[in-house]
Write a structure and sequence with these properties.
It contains 18 helices and 5 strands. By secondary structure, it is an alpha/beta fold. The N and C termini lie far apart (51 Å). The structure holds zinc ion. The site of zinc ion (ZN) has 9 residues, from helix 3.
């Protein structure tokens, strides 16, 4: 099967079956976490649907016909691609329905209704459709209800819950799964992002199934920060303020709030890995740990930990992750977390909280 997208075979099989039966619906919602290939799949599918030479069942274009060349150049008149404008956090109504002055005479709704210019179809893809303004999303309903003949519209969503139910119900939802670590490790090397198999495996382990995350994890500064944070947490008496200082310095270097939030999630992922491995070791279970992590675990003197004290730390990190992902102020969440982890580590023979109450009692939470 010629499908340039590793790890999403079920998506390829689904489209091949639809195309074979000549029952292609006109609207799709590609749903799944960021960085698993939704955009790549949509563009590849569009290339295949528009190609003048190959059958659409190939799910990709021949790359040599006039249509494929236009897609490659980004100038295909029958392919409408909408992305979140740079520096914006919403897709404005203009891109969908045209500017105020030219409403209905430009934008996706207008373009998709025109007769195909090169081939026999029109294809439109909207990336990050979760960020459509309510007006833009509502204006799409008309196209979804009465799609122009031979048109295909693909909406891409990282969070299905954020889609209006009226949109969700009018589209075929195509789920995309997180990629397996082995697939990520292979892709990272195939794409030439690293030559080192060891590094590829290392980033794949922490990428959470996302190729985009894997790419960010190739930043060496992140691993330096990981060492600094875990060096401190593995001490018998960690200094919460020292971690706060290190982490805030690293976050301040990043310009966009979204980048800082993402970096915080990455650091929390490392810390989570540390406590998960500690909890596993205390339970006598084998934890997935690389050499460095094993070193930190040894230094953390596992024999001196009460198993529930380690679980309190693990739960605290999970909770902090949830808060950061829910847009609570990052600095506040992290500072409270480091202080809690430091205190619990210093008193590791006794759990500081009942496990059930970790989520209510952590100071980082009370302060928010
Ligand atoms: Zn072609």
């Amino acid at each position: 099967m010629q499908w340039p997208l590793e790890g999403q075979d079920q998506v390829a099989a689904y489209f091949q079956s639809l195309l074979r039966q000549e029952k292609l619906p006109s609207s799709f919602l590609f749903a799944g976490p960021p960085g698993v290939g939704k955009w790549t799949a949509a563009v590849e599918l569009a290339r295949g649907l528009l190609c003048l030479r190959q059958s659409p069942e190939q799910l990709t274009g021949c790359r040599t016909c006039r249509s494929c060349k236009l897609v490659e150049a980004g100038t295909h008149p029958d392919l409408i691609l909408i992305e979140l404008p740079e520096g914006k956090n919403q897709i404005p109504l203009e891109l969908v329905a045209g500017s105020r002055e030219r409403r209905g005479q430009e934008g996706l709704i207008h373009q998709i209704a025109l007769r195909p210019d090169v081939g026999t179809r029109k294809v439109a893809v909207i990336d990050e459709a979760d960020t459509l303004t309510p007006e833009a999303a509502n204006s799409l309903l008309k196209v979804l209800e009465e799609p122009p003949l031979d048109s295909v519209l693909i909406l891409i969503s990282h969070n299905l819950e954020q889609q209006l139910p009226t949109i969700r119900s009018r589209c075929q939802v195509v789920p995309f799964r997180p990629l397996l670590p082995e697939a990520i490790a292979r892709l990272v090397q195939q794409l030439g992002w690293t030559d080192s198999a060891q590094e590829a495996q290392r980033v794949a382990r922490y990428a959470g199934g996302s190729l985009r995350q894997a790419r960010e994890l190739l930043d060496p500064e992140l691993w330096t920060l990981r060492s600094a944070v875990l060096d401190e947490l593995a001490r018998p008496r960690p200094r919460g303020f020292a971690i706060t200082e290190q982490v805030s310095q690293a976050l301040e270097k990043l310009k966009q709030p979204a980048q800082r939030r993402n970096r915080a999630v990455q650091i929390l992922g490392f810390v989570l890995g540390f406590y998960h491995a500690l909890v596993c070791r205390l339970a006598g279970a084998e934890a997935p740990a690389d050499e460095e992590l094993t070193g930190w675990l040894d230094r953390a003197e596992p024999d001196s930990w009460h198993p529930e004290a380690a679980q309190v730390c693990l739960h605290r990190v999970v909770h902090a992750l949830e808060l950061v992902q829910r847009n609570v102020q990052v600095a506040l969440v992290l500072q409270g977390l480091w202080e809690d982890l430091a205190r619990q580590t210093a008193h590791r023979r006794t759990p500081l909280y009942e496990l059930e109450t970790v989520f209510d009692r952590s100071p980082g939470v009370a302060a928010v």
